[in-house]
Design goal:
By secondary structure, this protein is an all-alpha fold. Helices cover 82% and strands 2% of the residues. The chain has helices at 2-16, 21-35, 41-53, 58-101, 105-134, 146-160, 166-183, and strands at residues 140-141, 144-145. It has a two-stranded antiparallel ribbon with strand order 1-2. Helix 2 (21-35) crosses helix 5 (105-134).
Length: 184
């Protein structure tokens, strides 16, 4: 039964995550945390962090992680297949339609209407993770971890103003957080 739940849950995620892996994050959260309670919100935040750091698409990495956590190796295979099967069928169909109607104005209008929805899905996932990240920790003020908030502000500054490599910023933030943890 768990394998069918994994398959159908990740088929839904694969079917409705228009816009890529970041757009799939709130859908994965809804299935894995809220509907099925396979993960806690803290475990989900860890999942997203690991899925972003490992090579490969975020949705596939997340499906594999949830699948292995819930149903072992077979669960990982089933969840991963569930998340990619809709894409295989949809991309094949879209390639055919695009090739046939690529010069039509209606197609351009449809694609431009999807952009705001994708941005909203990504923003929703980011805000959920930000709230989780800054509302846990030891040094709290009004329910917000001071260390996490300072690291977040530092990361935003060096990414936006200094244009540093995101991988280097992640490493620096990890080292800073480790240093604070070792000190406290």
């Amino acid at each position: 039964m768990i394998y069918l739940e994994l398959l159908f849950s990740f088929i839904q995620i694969g079917l409705f995550s228009i816009g890529g892996g970041y757009a799939a994050i709130p859908l994965i959260q809804a299935q894995a945390v809220e509907i099925h309670s396979w993960l806690t919100i803290s475990e989900f935040t860890d999942l997203v962090t690991i899925a972003e750091m490992t090579p490969g698409p975020i949705a596939i990495n997340s499906a594999t992680f949830v699948g292995i956590r819930v149903g072992g190796m077979l669960g990982a295979i089933i969840a991963t297949m569930g998340v990619i099967l809709p894409s295989i069928f949809i991309v094949t169909l879209l390639a055919y339609i695009y090739k046939k109607y690529r010069s039509a104005k209606a197609l351009d209008s449809i694609l431009s209407c999807l952009r705001p929805a994708v941005v909203a899905l990504i923003a929703s996932a980011g805000i959920s993770m930000l709230i989780t990240a800054i509302s846990t920790g030891e040094m709290m003020m009004y329910g917000i971890s001071i260390v996490s908030l300072i690291i977040f502000i530092f990361a935003m500054f060096v990414l936006r103003k200094l244009k540093l490599n995101p991988i280097m910023v992640m490493l620096m933030c990890g080292v800073i957080n480790l240093g604070v943890w070792l000190i406290s």
